[in-house]
Write a structure and sequence with these properties.
With 719 residues, this protein is an alpha/beta fold. The chain is 50% helix and 13% strand. The two termini are 25 Å apart.
Length: 719
């Protein structure tokens, strides 16, 4: 065996998982073969064995499935995958049903398949460390726990009790696991933890010579009752509808998990395990799991691992950061910085406005104190790090100054010139602009090498993405420092090259303007909004335009027109922009903040917004040809095409920045795995063919040039 060490001494069989040349243990093909060999050896030694210990030679217990292997699976591989899952489960089942006590010694994190390995043990002992994560988060990757996880967790906790840990993928630490009865004993952290776990295990083995899982015992009753019991049956009437409401039918894993939970309790355990295997084989061979694994595992790890960060530059964290502008954006950044231990100077035109900005942090922290999620002392610490001011002098000595003032080039230039000289030696300056090219803004700087874009998303305390924009002169040290600063805030940084709208704002603009263009074509507003939601976007494009303000879109358009004129070019407004212009200028509907946009906003508290009834008479045409499929595809393909163009133009340089940026910054549907993974999951040829159809019907917004097609192929990930 190459991934498993086995020894038998004094009646105790010690099984040590130790995958060579890997920091963690995984369910790779070699391990699966080794499990077959291990099972054969244990059966052979059965008479000499008094108990079995499952241990790990790594700092974690077991990491789970080999996800790179999953990425290589094709739909036609489903029968083979089913057979492999069944073979593994047969070996696991043989070990746990041979009448010998099995104890899992959990020395570190055990997630997914790792927790399923731990569940082989009749008795589980773990180190009492809050950093250790246990559980079955497979649903977050489009999979289900198919190595007996669904079946065992449902029998351990019951349908209601297991649901958060299976359908939602909620993880837990060892102390919580002990409270749930999933871990039976804990040992304190320290150098003796492994020895203490083994000692406790040997005592338990001696006291339980014929151990078995609870459900193997005659008369075992599932906690909470079977699906046929009245309380559970009542829940099962609404559960599928609730899942469908959350997933919109776009994520097959939660529904498959619930089906396995319910159906598995109505049959014997062997049949339940087969149901689970079939469901997992189907998910593993489908496109949704691959899309989610690619992005939420590989791409996210690439971001966290700093693959977009310039190499060879020392790690950095600013001690003091100045923020210009105490509006929603500046106030939000101030709170996030202060909560991560960074001294913050919040500057506005007056002390009063700056104090109001600090009040945002007070409001958020007070809500947490009231709910018992934060102590008053912690709140005082955070608020103490924010210095609101109306004076420029207080910015002296800042390592970084970020301007978050209104999107006006002249205003941004003025505050840059005013405050840049106050930076500490070696400090750098950033703009939080969402659309204005950084290279142009950097002309106001005395050192364009130390000028960069750091684009936060609102609300800052909730949005995880930050877009870092390199100007043409921005040096690599400044990029690395900006990257480290964003990571110090606990957020995901993506790095893009300069252009109008960068990546996120540019692609986001195509989504909302495609929706507005549809309205201008005479398509019913309700159909447009529903198409966006059915496609998996958080809300429809018209609702988003209202939230971001139609007047802001108009301002960006006017600024772009001026920039084009300055360059001697002519700017032609898009059909969507003409609709927005009409709404603002002719009908005086500026968006939600102004009380009226594509939607009406009742003044009564609790009353829901509704589409402005006048849209029907102003725009809708009874003979406008449309299908819901075309509407959904237009909204998704338009964004994916623009993302591919960004890649071809070197605005984006990596697929992982494209996918993570599109999901966490724009709200591109997570079921797709992101805007580029949407293309790869669809199949490049199929995507190109559909894009050509959409181009013929709806214009050049969907056109893929030869350069863009080449970029799509060049960046296709290989596993």
């Amino acid at each position: 065996m190459k991934t498993i060490q086995y020894s038998l001494a004094d009646g105790i069989a010690t099984v040590t998982f130790d995958e060579p040349n890997s920091p963690v243990n995984t369910m790779c093909l070699q391990w699966q073969d080794d499990m077959a060999a291990l099972t054969e050896q244990i059966v052979k030694d059965k008479d000499a064995i008094k108990g079995i210990l499952l241990t790990s030679a790594k700092t974690t217990f077991f990491a789970g499935a080999d996800l790179k292997g999953v990425m290589r699976i094709k739909p036609s591989d489903a029968p083979t995958i089913y057979a492999e899952i069944e073979r593994l489960k047969k070996n696991m089942r043989t070990i746990e049903t041979m009448g010998k006590p099995v104890v899992s010694l959990i020395n570190g994190t055990a997630l997914g398949g790792g927790w399923e390995v731990a569940l082989i043990g009749h008795h589980r002992i773990a180190i009492d460390d809050k950093k250790i994560q246990l559980g079955l988060p497979e649903v977050t990757l489009g999979l289900l726990p198919g190595a007996s996880g669904v079946t065992k967790m449902t029998r351990h906790l019951g349908l209601m009790g297991a649901q958060p840990y299976l359908v939602e993928g909620k993880t837990f630490d060892p102390a919580t696991a002990k409270g749930l009865g999933l871990v039976h004993d804990l040992v304190p952290t320290g150098d003796n933890a492994a020895a203490e776990m083994k000692a406790k295990a040997l005592v338990w083995i001696a006291a339980n010579p014929t151990a078995q899982h609870p459900w193997e015992a005659k008369g075992y009753k599932v906690p909470g009752g079977l699906p046929s019991s009245p309380a559970v049956a009542q829940m099962l009437v609404v559960a599928p509808a609730m899942i469908k409401k959350q997933t919109r039918g776009l994520y097959p894993a939660p529904e498959a998990i619930m089906a396995c939970m319910v159906e598995g309790l109505q049959v014997d355990i062997e049949t339940a395990l087969r149901l689970e295997s079939r469901a997992l084989a189907k998910l593993m061979s489908g496109i949704n799991a691959k899309a989610m694994i690619n992005t939420f595992f590989f791409n996210l790890n690439a971001i966290k691992g700093g693959q977009s960060r310039p190499a060879g530059i020392a790690k950095y964290k600013p001690a003091k950061v100045g923020l210009l502008g105490a509006g929603m954006m500046g106030a939000g950044i101030a709170y996030v910085q202060a909560s991560k231990g960074i001294a913050t100077v919040l500057k506005d035109v007056s002390q009063e406005k700056a104090d109001t900005g600090k009040g945002y942090a007070a409001k958020i922290t007070q809500a947490r104190v009231d709910k018992g999620r934060m102590t008053a002392n912690k709140q005082a610490e955070i608020l103490g790090r924010i210095q609101p001011t109306g004076s420029l002098d207080d910015l002296k000595g800042c390592d970084l100054i970020i301007e978050a003032v209104f999107e006006n080039r002249e205003l941004k230039a003025r505050v840059t010139k005013e405050t840049e000289p106050l930076l500490a030696p070696g400090g750098f300056f950033a703009s939080n602009t969402s659309t204005l090219p950084i290279t142009g803004l950097a002309t106001a700087s005395t050192d364009a090498k130390k000028f960069i874009g750091i684009h936060f998303f609102s609300p800052v305390d909730k949005m995880q993405l930050v877009e870092i924009i390199k100007g043409t002169e921005t040096d690599l040290e400044t990029v690395a420092r900006a990257f480290d600063y964003v990571q110090a805030l606990g957020k995901f940084p993506i790095v893009v090259n300069d252009s109008r709208g960068f990546f996120t704002s540019r692609v986001f603009g195509t989504f909302v303007m495609e929706g507005a263009a549809m309205l201008g074509e005479g398509i019913p507003a309700a159909a447009i909004e529903n198409a966006g939601i059915q496609a998996g976007m958080p809300v429809g494009p018209l609702a988003v335009l209202d939230e971001t303000a139609l007047t802001l879109s108009l301002h960006v358009m006017d600024q772009t027109r001026k920039d084009f004129e300055a360059e001697g070019k002519t700017y032609t407004a898009t059909p969507g922009e003409l609709v927005v212009e009409k709404m603002v200028n002719q009908h005086k509907r500026p968006g939600r903040a102004g009380g009226a946009g594509f939607y009406d906003y009742p003044s009564d508290k609790g009353a829901k917004k509704f589409l402005w009834p006048e849209l029907k008479g102003l725009f809708e045409k009874t003979d406008a040809p449309w299908t819901i499929t075309d509407l959904k595809d237009r909204l998704l393909y338009r964004q994916a095409v623009e993302t591919a163009r960004c890649l071809a133009e070197n605005v984006l340089t990596t697929v992982h920045d494209a996918n993570i940026g599109s999901i966490f910054g724009i709200g591109f549907p997570a079921w797709t795995g992101g805007a580029m993974q949407f293309i790869y999951g669809m199949g490049i040829e199929a995507f190109e063919a559909r894009a050509a159809e959409l181009t013929a019907k709806f214009g050049d917004g969907f056109h893929l040039s030869d350069t863009v097609k080449a970029a799509i192929r060049q960046h296709q990930p290989q596993y």
